């Protein structure tokens, strides 16, 4: 630009140079995709394949399948509309605060391209250069699973507008002891299944004849003794003692996509005989009867897990108190917080903010002993439907003696369209209830004790 202004003073002499500059500029602009008429081939396919197709293909949650040009162009106007108003792709975390793996986020220019494409009639473009649609494994996060276990019985969800809490046992028997690299949970009913916390039961050699003993689906009554439930499920060894239980090997919340760590991080030992225990299987209220038969997919590893991950829950049912106690008065917007202090230096892998329907916003951060703040996650507009386990691109290193803090704002007024009560009622934590209409405030973190070099590990795949 400076060059241009200078030349302007001596117009005659500068004119050919200016023409030359203009020519270069035109060539440059026309070779630059962004200003070109967006077509399916030159721009739209790659945007949709990255940000939409993972959930919009057969067997996935998104209803519409967006794989071929026909499927995508047919819905160009709808795609333009849902992206313009920010409804899709679903990514509640503020990317200006912290960044994660596998973000579903459109840049301003991608957003504009989708609008422009729809307005101009969704052209295909150069049909010889259509990008290949991405390869996905049906119903699967990555390659073919080594073991697929389905709930032995489908759960009939009665349409009585009441929350339901179940425990399912998925027994298995394999050829020999092995290692688990990753576990994937595929809900059979994504509309109604709100939560699941999966544990792994391992029977030592010779301790259990028939892993299928007992009931496979039991209602989880909050007041019933847990041991009684475990006995009904036939979890005990043949001598009546209980086998080892590895807690929280897999968790599900609305929209969660399973996390897969690089080899060497996470993973579990898996004995020849055992069972997955799907606890806290929580189905939201529905007026229409429905059913669920969820599936667990297991990916075996070759090596023993070197660095098992640790999980910590802050807040409701967790290790730190919610302050003030989580009681949300009607017709008010109120704020709560919870925090812990780290007793060792840690490498933080994932964070999962969890609230229910009254959630309005959420913020998680760490404060180092020297006073510096490490931003962890910020959700400016809470959305109950998308509660990812956000995975950092690289572990976030948090020094020993840091405070890990979470702040949640709840909107218990009539202006919250998700408020389950009209007029609003006092809502809060109730005993150990996890009903959708009661509230929870949790910040779940997964981490490793720090090791030198952790800051350079890539968690992307
Ligand atoms: C993480 C999964 C996920 C991603 C990524 C995603 N969607 Fe969706 N989408 C869904 C689900 C699930 C629904 C069903 C609606 C619901 O339950 O809220 C949906 C619904 C829709 C609908 C139907 C809206 C209606 O009114 O019926 C459209 C259109 C849509 N998505 C377009 C897109 C587009 C375009 C993208 C990419 C820019 C995208 N989605 C990315 C999961 C996803």
How would you sum up this structure, described in words?
- The protein has 461 residues and is α+β, with helices and mostly antiparallel strands.
- The chain has four domains: 2-31, no CATH class; 34-129, no CATH class; 147-308, Sandwich (Jelly Rolls), CATH 2.60.120; 311-456, Jelly Rolls.
- The chain has seven helices and 21 strands.
- It has helices at 2-8, 11-31, 40-51, 69-74, 76-84, 108-119, 226-232; strands at 147-150, 155-157, 164-173, 178-186, 193-203, 217-219, 244-252, 268-270, 273-283, 290-292, 295-301, 310-315, 327-328, 333-341, 346-355, 359-367, 373-379, 390-398, 403-411, 427-428, 441-449.
- The strands form six sheets. It has a five-stranded antiparallel beta sheet with strand order 6-3-9-5-7, with no helix packed on it.
- The longest helix is centred in the N-terminal third of the chain and has 21 residues, at 11-31.
- The protein is globular and about 70 Å long.
- The two termini are 42 Å apart.
- Bound molecules: heme C.
- Residues 51-52, 54-56, 61-64, 78-79, 82-83, 88-90, 104, 255, 385 line the site of heme C.
Structural topology:
Layout (H helix, E strand, L loop, with lengths): L1 H7 L2 H21 L8 H12 L17 H6 L1 H9 L23 H12 L27 E4 L4 E3 L6 E10 L4 E9 L6 E11 L13 E3 L6 H7 L11 E9 L15 E3 L2 E11 L6 E3 L2 E7 L8 E6 L11 E2 L4 E9 L4 E10 L3 E9 L5 E7 L10 E9 L4 E9 L15 E2 L12 E9 L12
Antiparallel strand pairs: 1-11, 2-10, 3-6, 3-9, 4-8, 4-11, 5-7, 5-9, 12-21, 13-20, 14-19, 15-18, 15-21, 16-17, 16-19
Helix pairs in contact: 3-6, 5-6
Bound molecules: heme C (HEC).
Heme C (HEC) binds next to helix 5.
């Amino acid at each position: 630009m400076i060059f241009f202004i200078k030349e302007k003073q001596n117009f005659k002499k500068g004119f050919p140079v200016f023409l030359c500059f203009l020519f270069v500029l035109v060539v440059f602009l026309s070779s630059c995709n962004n200003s070109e008429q967006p077509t399916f081939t030159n721009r739209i396919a790659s945007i949709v394949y990255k940000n939409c197709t993972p959930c919009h293909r057969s067997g996935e949650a998104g209803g519409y399948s967006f794989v071929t040009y026909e499927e995508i162009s047919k819905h160009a106007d709808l795609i333009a509309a849902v992206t313009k108003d920010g409804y899709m792709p679903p990514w509640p975390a503020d990317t200006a605060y912290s960044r994660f793996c596998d973000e579903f986020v459109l840049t301003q220019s991608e957003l504009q391209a989708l609008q422009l494409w729809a307005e101009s009639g969704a052209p295909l473009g150069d049909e010889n250069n259509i990008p290949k649609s991405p390869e996905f494994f049906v119903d699967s996060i990555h390659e073919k699973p080594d073991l697929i276990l389905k709930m032995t019985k489908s759960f009939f969800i009665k349409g009585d507008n009441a929350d339901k809490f179940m425990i399912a046992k998925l027994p298995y028997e394999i050829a020999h002891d092995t290692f688990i690299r990753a576990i994937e949970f595929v809900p059979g009913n994504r509309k109604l299944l709100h939560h699941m916390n999966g544990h792994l039961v391992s029977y030592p050699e010779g301790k259990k004849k028939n892993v299928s003993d007992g009931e496979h689906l039991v209602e989880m009554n909050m007041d019933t003794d847990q041991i009684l439930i475990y006995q009904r499920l036939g979890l005990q060894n043949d001598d009546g003692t209980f086998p080892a239980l590895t807690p929280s090997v897999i968790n599900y919340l609305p929209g969660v996509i399973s996390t897969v760590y690089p080899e060497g991080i996470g993973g579990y030992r898996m004995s020849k005989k055992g069972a997955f225990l799907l606890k806290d299987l929580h189905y939201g209220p529905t007026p229409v009867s429905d059913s669920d038969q969820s599936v667990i997919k297991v990916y075996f590893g070759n090596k023993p897990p070197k660095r098992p991950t640790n999980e910590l829950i802050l807040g409701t049912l967790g290790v730190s108190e919610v302050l003030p106690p989580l009681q949300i008065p009607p017709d008010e917007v109120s704020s709560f917080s919870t925090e812990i202090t780290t007793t060792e230096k840690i490498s933080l892998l994932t964070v999962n903010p969890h609230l229910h329907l009254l959630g309005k916003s959420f913020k998680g951060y760490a404060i180092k002993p020297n006073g510096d703040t490490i931003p962890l996650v910020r959700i400016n507009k809470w959305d109950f439907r998308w509660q990812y386990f956000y995975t950092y691109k690289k572990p976030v290193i948090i020094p020993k003696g840091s405070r890990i803090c979470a702040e949640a704002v709840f909107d218990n007024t009539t202006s919250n369209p998700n408020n389950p009560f009209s007029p609003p009622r006092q809502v809060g934590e109730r005993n150990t209830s996890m009903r959708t209409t009661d509230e929870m405030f949790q910040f779940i973190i997964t981490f490793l004790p720090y090791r030198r070099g952790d800051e350079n590990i890539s968690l992307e795949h």
